[in-house]
Amino acid sequence: MAGLAVTLLAGIALAACGATAPPRPAVHRSEAAAGGQSAESSSPGMQQLDDDLQQMDEKARAKARALQAEIRASSFKSLPGDAQFQTLKRAAKVSDAVGDTRLAYGYLERAIAMPEAGFDDRLAQVRMAVNLHREDDVIGGLTVIAERWPEQLPKVDSDFISRTIYESDRRTHAAAFPLLQALYGAHWKVKWGFEPSAAWRDLSLFLLERGRTAEAADVAAHVTDVYVLIAMRADRRFDAVVAAGSAHFDIDAAAEREVRDYQEASDRTPKSLQLEVDAIEALRIQQHYAAMLAASDAVLQQIRSTNSPEELFDDYGDYYSAFLEDRAVALEGMSRWDEALEQMIAASRRFEKGTGNVSQLIDLGNLYCDLGRPKDALVALASMVADASPYGNMVEQGVRVDAATQMGDVKRAGRLLEAMRARRGDAPFEYLSALIAADQPDRAARYLVELLMDPIERQEALQGVQTYLDAPSTPRQLELEARWHAVIARQDVQAAVRKVGRIDAYRVVGS
Q1: Cα–Cα distance between 27 and 249 in angstroms, integer?
Q2: Which DSSP category does 18 fall into?
Q3: For 154-177, what is the mean pLDDT?
Q4: DSSP three-state, residue 355
Q5: Of 86, 283, 391, 392, which residue is the least packed, with the fewest Cβ within 10 Å?
Q6: Across-strand partners of 501?
Q7: How do residues 64-122 score in pLDDT, each as one tens digit?
Q8: Bridge partners for 355 per DSSP
Q9: Buried b (16+ CB within 10 A) or exposed e, 115-129
């Protein structure tokens, strides 16, 4: 299913996002029977440590109560502004330390409203708002940072900002509009200086909805991601900006720019394996599989030539498993399936960003399904020890649906599908992919129409129904592709597409 099916790249980073910490060390039976208390924990030395910690905690609580009394006193408002500000900050810090986060946040809110508040204070408020699930305050705090301290934006994790925008848009349409405007005015970039294409697409749409076409076109000119550009071309809501910048929406040129930009960034930052991964993945867009393999082999040779790959790449531990997966994708593209499988197995055995592997194990399971080996797929999934994110869990369940279907276990596939349907908001298109794998064309068509009519999901739905280059495929992949194209060809789906967009053919592979 070009543009929809779970590919080997689907799980990179996303499936592992939100993975928990490594499993806790095993507790001996004797310790478990005693509620986890070992002989060591009851020793005199450990008891003294417990007493010391308790005294420290009591002192902190006493300090918190004293600060609270000082702030509540009528004389507090007569103090100089800076004295009030510093006291509120101390009270927030101490209250947070003793576990009274809500009280701490109240103090911090008062502090950041004062003229003495700076960037660090506002960032502390944003972080605490995240812990308290105060989404509107997170957006508001980031907006103030972008407006008042644009030069400090690089200190805020760009992935966090992007995730905030995404989650805000899904929660309340256009809630992030002020934040996007502030970020655009601050010339915000994500890591390595790349444009945040999805964010600028959203801002462009919000401006179009307000009749500000010229501004929308200016913002759209900063969208660089190939698949975001394709989705915008397919969506009638963006017709005005596409017409205004037709050269910028040339997909072949955009794909070539992407390869060049990532390669140049990688050359500028030779100690980043992440950029090597991104540059290799950019080659896949136009099916440059031989070039992908050559680039992968060159990096692999560097890694194998040293006993200290961590000195070669600063982020070696975080991205080596993803790098090996990219090499597997290159081998797949050259129809070297046995070698691709061997490489994916090796990738799945590596730690993923310091914890148990999730992404590559899920994608290994998917590859086994593609190769018609569903039992091996389930074995691969059973070896996961780290938890997947909600999205990653949906990808995993989709692989299980495919495996159950291939094994003829219709009841199990049905139960898995119902569980996925209940959580489809976590990953709508993984649920759609699972319906295709389970050979449920009627349900798949109805759900696809629903996604096309949804203003939030429409972009990804339109991207998925476009026509892309054929890629080397296994018999199972060809079967799924045929089912997907049959769903797209249905009259109800075609009518929905015509109502909101269009289908074109592109000389790139599906995302």
Answers
A1: 58
A2: T
A3: 91
A4: strand
A5: 86
A6: 235
A7: 899 999 999 999 999 999 999 999 999 999 999 999 999 999 999 999 999 999 999 99
A8: 352
A9: eebebebbbbbbebb
